[in-house]
Amino acid sequence: MNRDNNSIEPPLMPYLNEKFGHYCPNMCIYVGPSPIIVVTCPKVIEAMYTTHNKSFDKHDLVKLLTMELTGRSILFAESNPEWRARRKALSPAFYKGKLIKMIEIAKGSVQTSLKRLQGMTESGVKTKIDLIGEMSRMNIRIILERALGIDITEDMLPYWENGKLVQRDVPYVLRTCFQIMINRMFTCHVIMFPWLADKYITPAERDLLANSRTLRAKFQKVVNDRRQEMKEGRRLDEGDFLSILLSDELFKEDNEMIVDEILTFFFAGSQTSSVVTQNLLMHLMKESPIHKKKILDELEQVVIQPHLAKLVEDGKLKVGETVTNIRPLDVIDYEDFTEMSYYGLCVNEALRIQPPVSQSSTVCMMKDVDCGGLVLKKGDAISISMEHFGRNPAEWQEPKKFIPERFDS
Ligand code: HEM
Prior knowledge:
Elements: H1 12-20, E1 27-29, E2 36-39, H2 42-49, E3 56-58, H3 60-70, H4 81-90, H5 96-122, H6 131-148, E4 156-161, E5 164-169, H7 170-183, H8 188-192, H9 203-231, H10 241-246, H11 255-286, H12 290-313, H13 328-331, H14 334-339, H15 341-353, E6 363-365, E7 369-371, E8 374-376, E9 381-384, H16 386-389
Parallel strand pairs: 2-9
Antiparallel strand pairs: 1-2, 3-6, 4-5, 7-8
Helix pairs in contact: 3-7, 5-6, 6-11, 7-9, 9-11, 11-15, 12-15
């Protein structure tokens, strides 16, 4: 197998892609003591999430792998009463009012990035702009601010890299710790000996362990500072994720539990939305400009024209007067996104063609079940491959092409 030495991609996916191309069948990989079943067939996935929804749960492996970073967070823990109680307490963070607030934070973050980029171009000094890095930073800032109510993206942390202690900013440490931690699932020694999942043996694993502990300590401090502020009657009702947890009976006195969920909120929300935004941008730049033009036309129709009409209605603008200084960023709101249907199709297509989470964390069945013709045995590790599922030529016409209209039905 051809493999780029600098790749951080786990070896399993390049192997499957090289062997089967973008359509790989359901398969059982038996490398270590127990099998990993890679599921790609829509019928099987549908049966798992509908008929057999109650019989499937998280597999222990992923909980062990992530314990040092996200503890017993809802993302990887098994669905017991504790999990249900935690999940219920977290749901207010996703109510519509909170999402509206998130749009405002996002707008602020885009402004900060724009200013940064303008500063770079206006300085006159020729600089290479790392667009992917900038977008990643922008998304991390949004999620961190939504999670903590403050922007800690510029804070520096001690970070172990190849056995040396260096300084790295919070977004870097968060991104790399999560990437390395998840990729351990596909390393040979963990596949061969799953009980090594929570043992940190190699020098790189020891670096990871130290960095994870630094991260948790940093977040503990943010939690303690905020608790103190709230005790003093300050910053009580800002609606961020941390203030929701600090006001909840189950969470409020338990720092470990709060840090588990805040790190998960960051992990689940930042890289996913960052990758889909980057992929969409790349497709709009690479493919025919028609998709880009359609989005810009929609923006004009849904955001700019109604705004101008409102200015005329309020007597702030005369009919026929030329306006040059309206930026969509200043006037767009949550409701506009629900009306921008073509933009929605483009996001769906970007998610299909290059899913930010290419493979689910490992799950397992609690009893033997027949899912859409595939017999899944109790306890076997199962992973759903979104990457192969989204490119199956039996399901999608011209699966390699970026065609947003395919979702318009
Ligand atoms: C395009 C963006 C996103 C994608 C593609 C995505 C994808 C996923 C996937 C595949 C899972 C299941 C993971 C597994 O166990 O295998 C998941 C779970 C989760 N995601 Fe997202 N996600 C996105 C955005 C977000 C955002 C913005 C947030 C929060 C701000 C978020 C919060 C969560 C949480 C809390 C869970 C765990 C849910 C549970 O187990 O009950 N996600 N996401």
